[in-house]
User: Fold this.
Amino acid sequence: GAVVSQHPSWVICKSGTSVKIECRSLDFQATTMFWYRQFPKQSLMLMATSNEGSKATYEQGVEKDKFLINHASLTLSTLTVTSAHPEDSSFYICSARQGDAYGYTFGSGTRLTVV
Amino acid sequence: DQQVKQNSPSLSVQEGRISILNCDYTNSMFDYFLWYKKYPAEGPTFLISISSIKDKNEDGRFTVFLNKSAKHLSLHIVPSQPGDSAVYFCAAIAPNTGNQFYFGTGTSLTVIP
Assistant:
């Protein structure tokens, strides 16, 4: 079946630095990728939707200059958390969709801790 | 505004018995619903889905029921197994929002051997 690889699975960074998270669809072309964030004991919250070759659409309240999303190819999307702060510590998960199908495949997630 | 709600944060069930996880939603435009299973520090994995034109979908031990008039869906797992212990999220999609997912807050299921 469809596989989405997310890397790294776990990262610790210093406050003020930037962290890049990669999401790759391994055996299919992902026309749309989604980035989610989950805080402890809360639901997955959609941060942004990106379509290959175009700018990402951010959800209300998500700073696009802080969370840079690039979807340069049909198999790769990246989320860069710029100038990270402790409050950005969270679990980030990507999801990829092929075409207009309802099939969404999730990555394994990235646990970000900012110290 | 939480459009998809799972009011039970946790559920414990004896092995072999039925697990029933509930989910309520407020947006009548939702036309597709999904259940995901999530282990700690892992991404959600798809379990089962149902279209709004159906009221039941079955896949092995998992059955999802949809009651559109009540805006309620439920996931039945029977018989429950210890490996089913995980957090279960229901999610809904409204086509007029670019197929954006709306997730519930999750229910942690513990199946006791």
